[in-house]
Request: fold
Amino acid sequence: MRVLILSVTAGEGHNSCAAALREALERRGHEVKVADLYRSCGIPRRLTEEIYLICARCFRSKYRRVYTRMERDEAFRRKWEKRFLPDWLYPRAAAFLQGQEADCVVAMHVFAARLLTVLHRQGLISVPILGVNTDYCLHPYWEDCPGLNGLVIPDAASREDMLSRGVPPEILKPLGIPIRSPERYLLTRKETRGRLGLPEGKCILLMGGSMGYGRIFSTALALRRQEATTVCVCGKNRGLYLLLKPFQNRRLKVLGFIRNLPEYMRAADLAVTKPGGLSLTELAAAGLPVLLTRPIPGHEERNLRLWTGLGAAASAASCRSGREIAALAMRLSGDGEALARMRGVLEGLRDPQAAENLCSFVETLDKAAVHD
Reply:
């Protein structure tokens, strides 16, 4: 079976899920290609990520207002859709897709899914289309994707949100968010610390997604003064890495974009990070309690509400400084009962078979699949 996975680079969550599905499908002998929607149509991949980050950081209030109105107002969504998916993009995308000869296409981002369903309606593609929602809430535009053969969601608990927004119940597939090599999240804590050269004692993992988003610099400096080892992962934020690196000492380890994040998750006692969908899924796989910092407006705010409501995380979203976040992290990391409660909830959220479950569903799709 030839499978095309179409992603969008807005952070690394969608791409990481795409890589996880690719690995699982290739293990089963399928031919898989992963492509970025915008790059395939001639738009620099880095450009879309930079625009997303600028909007989230510099225009938070406006971003939130636009996102919230999109959820409620279909006409407003249509107006903004032209900015994300301009008319000239469709013929380019159609030409690219027709050259792939795929048996099905998996959309790892809502814009990719929306574009695919429009092209299908126009008769420009005819293969089955599967959407994968990589957050614990429904992004605007998923409800505007008629013709999907399935919409993969994290769990049955998020199904009601989807139904309330008009998504047909028959396409909802609670198969989980796929992560790469889930067995890596089950390494023993002692062995992992020895492998990473981390000392015994309290260990805090500080992150901000692949973009290094949030008050990481000030939080890292505040944690550096505490009786704990802090591992700060700056992701692709090179500026943050270069600012923090001179402050590295025995209590603060500064890293850039790394491939062995699961090992650090298994070694730590607590994570401090923003509530990105993939980050939360990885933390659940590792059973690592988390203190959630200020989210990107929209979907991450909803992720935060869900996870704190379930008792799977604590919130530092109202903290106004890195010093406040660090103080809260130190208190929480010393509260054994609270950490144990979180680990219990996280155990119920783990889904190590998500990638395999998604593969099994993909294998049921073929060119004869019926679209509504």
About this structure: The chain has two domains: 2-177+353-362, 182-349. The chain has a mean pLDDT of 90. The two ends are 23 Å apart (CA to CA).
